Amino acid sequence: MRRPKAVAEAAFNLAVDAMGGDGAPGIVVDGLAITAERHPRARILLVGDEAALGRLLRGNRRASAICTVRHAASAVSMQTKPTAALRMRDSSMRLAMDAVAQGEAQGVVSAGNSGALLALAKIVVRTLPGIDRPALAALSPSSRGDVVMLDLGANIICDWRNLVEFAVMGEVFARTVLGLPAPTIGLLNVGAEELKGDERLRLAAEVLRSSPIAKQFHGFVEGHDITAGTTDVVVTDGFTGNVALKTGEGAMRLVGDLLKQVFAETIVSRLGYVLARPGLERMREWLDPRRYNGAVLLGLSGVVVKSHGGADAEGFAHAIDVAMDMVTHGFNDRIRAGLEWVGPAGKPQPGQGASGAANVAAAG
Amino acid sequence: MRRPKAVAEAAFNLAVDAMGGDGAPGIVVDGLAITAERHPRARILLVGDEAALGRLLRGNRRASAICTVRHAASAVSMQTKPTAALRMRDSSMRLAMDAVAQGEAQGVVSAGNSGALLALAKIVVRTLPGIDRPALAALSPSSRGDVVMLDLGANIICDWRNLVEFAVMGEVFARTVLGLPAPTIGLLNVGAEELKGDERLRLAAEVLRSSPIAKQFHGFVEGHDITAGTTDVVVTDGFTGNVALKTGEGAMRLVGDLLKQVFAETIVSRLGYVLARPGLERMREWLDPRRYNGAVLLGLSGVVVKSHGGADAEGFAHAIDVAMDMVTHGFNDRIRAGLEWVGPAGKPQPGQGASGAANVAAAG
């Protein structure tokens, strides 16, 4: 199995797929100009059409100061199926992944096709030992600070084992990016009571209750607990997580749009807006979806970050921030340590714990 | 099979479970006082502890004007398991259901235990011919007006057939309560493309595309489409629907709480609130969860409405409004007509349609 070389040896911090996303490659280069300000010593391998990138970088000194271009003859489009993307050996996404697999770069950032990114990451960057399936995680706002949500769509169908792995990876992610010493974990369900939900959820809860992170496991949480910040990590399957994430974003957008209408209505309400503006602006910035851009594919032998396809330069720069943060904090070494108890030598089994899963199965 | 008698014969519009919900029976009686103002000719069968209800009604003239009390010796608690609730023959929830089954009342409203309510409704009120499983539906706010969402938690695990039934029932519900001549329908998924999601979703979409409501079927929608109002009806399984509903409510509450903080921050921002107040109040009222209280159990031979267990008198009165609305508009006759093509004589099958489900199955 190929393994990325040690951090110090990598020539680049990140390999960036220049051709992914709605506004590529222009938005990507503009985003890297912001990165250059925030991380002036970053070394970026920019992978994509050499001619187009050359033109863009000539007009963008800041971005060109941190970028080295590598030519890619093709690009994965939003319509490309994952199986087809796997056969494209010269796509910008593939070559960026190759750079991580070969230890040239510590991580990769792409705003391209999610399905292709996931398939390529699994094949090229590879999953960590003990991990069955990588999961897509991101931060989400709550009244008690940011929370980690996963899976956000990498795995549409999950079993209890996947959910347990997601909990372990989410816990390490929360320690790394939120700096919490012992983040709490909740399993998303339709009620907090032990008998709620399906067999899969009850088994995952059972295993987590007798795991090394049992003290941090809060049990089941419900949809409203995400924004209430009941737990630092919210674990769910990729279907539910994707729907929940987009539903929450949509609800916030609805309230935001209504607020705009209210404030624009009359001269008096406009004046009201002006008076409350500093606080409203701060709130808008805090809830800004761009601040939450950059979903991380956890469970791989390298840092893989997915930017939203519709992100602007600011949003893309945030996705790069997330990747730089993970690379700097040695996230993958931490996750390896956190995963020891779910490693191939000792896959968790319900019933191994003190409380006995036989009862749970009978109740299901 | 018992069938409720015709509308004109029923002695009561609604049977109300007086003992369900956090503040029962006080909140229930206070809610009925509001109902008495809105529907002065309503005839309510109030089922619960006779002594307690007698005391409450003596102190509440408005409520007592529309209520007839029926004694129930027991009450289903929030901890009662559905199987145990089915064995309780003298509970207020059971006796209220019995009144519907025997044609005494046209519908039932309860703020009690959801699992018990669903189990009792299926056994006592019975499902309509052609319906495999009833679904919980409610209205939800969107930027284009209210939308119908279902299932909100009655069926944690669903197959494609259930999803098709939900679409049909949701369509009739939207015509009845929103007054739309041809409501559009979306199937909740993780992406709008045909290949997204699981087999179950692709088969349901395939069947709907060749159904009598094909023209109203929009295809797949995503989480953010709920509040965007992309379709009038959003169909999903009970697990996803429950999580999405609560996530959306939680997100709106987060923004609402942040707004309160912003406006309370300084004397200037407080003045800003005062100036924008009329519009802000209107917005708050429009998004008020109490205005969306009253989830309807669709697919039964009678109207069954579930109020939120934590609803106050205003919220409970809204749940009664929903039930009165459905009873008045002959919802069940409409749903019987809408269900003819999914009736037992001709259960829809993928592949019966023009487009051929074989390809879909192969792609899945």
Can you walk through the features of this model?
With 364 residues, chain A is α/β, with parallel strands linked by helices. Chain A has two domains: 1-126, Isopropylmalate Dehydrogenase; 132-293 and 337-364, Isopropylmalate Dehydrogenase (3-Layer(aba) Sandwich), CATH 3.40.718.10. Chain A is 47% helix and 14% strand. Chain A is built from 14 helices and eleven strands. In chain A, strands 3-2-1-4-11-10-5-6-9-7-8 form an eleven-stranded mixed sheet, with helices on both faces. In chain A, helix 1 (26-38) links the parallel strand 1 and strand 2. The longest helix of chain A has 27 residues, at 238-264. Chain A starts with 11 loop residues before the first strand and ends with a helix. In chain A, 57% of the residues are buried. Residues 1-7 and 352-364 of chain A have low confidence and may be disordered. At the A-B interface, helix 9, helix 10 and helix 11 of A face helix 9, helix 10 and helix 11 of B.
CATH class of the largest domain in chain A: Alpha Beta
Using a beta-carbon cutoff below 8 angstroms, give the protein chain pair with the largest interface and the number of residues from each chain.
A-B, 62 and 62 residues
Oligomerization state: homodimer
Shape of chain A: globular
Largest beta-sheet characterization of chain A: 11 strands, mixed
Class from secondary-structure proportions of chain A: alpha/beta
CATH superfamily of the largest domain in chain A: Isopropylmalate Dehydrogenase
Instruction: Enumerate the strands of the largest sheet of chain A in spatial order, edge to edge or round the barrel.
Output: 3-2-1-4-11-10-5-6-9-7-8
The tally of beta strands of chain A, per DSSP, is 11
CATH topology of the largest domain in chain A: Isopropylmalate Dehydrogenase
Low-confidence stretches of chain A: 1-7, 352-364
- Summarize the amount of helix of chain A as a percent range: 40-55%
Percentage of residues in strands of chain A = 5-15%
